[in-house]
Design brief:
Blueprint (H helix, E strand, L loop, with lengths): L6 E4 L2 E8 L4 E5 L20 E5 L7 H19 L4
Antiparallel strand pairs: 1-2, 2-3, 3-4
């Protein structure tokens, strides 16, 4: 859990979260501002975090969302392999 939201981590490093709200669900990424987003799914203006807003009844580009999740996962795995 991070800020009250279920969070996905590799080891102890978070890379994604899910926020459930009354009218939508956010699939968020802790380093989302650095992710390539050719489909333009990411929302937000923060320094690093971005999210995809999923609303009932609206079409979702599932393959693009899956690509964001995969890229975020690969990014955190690569960062964790860096030894300082």
């Amino acid at each position: 859990m991070h800020d009250g939201f279920p969070t996905v981590c590799v080891a102890d490093a978070p890379f994604a979260y899910v926020g459930v709200f009354r009218t939508h669900v956010n699939v968020g990424f802790f380093r989302g501002a650095a992710l390539p987003d050719p489909a333009g799914l990411l929302e937000g203006t923060g320094k690093s975090m971005r999210h995809v807003k999923v609303k009932p009844g609206l079409a979702l580009d599932g393959s693009s969302l899956e690509a964001l999740i995969t890229t975020a996962h690969r990014d955190i795995v690569a960062r964790l392999q860096v030894v300082e």
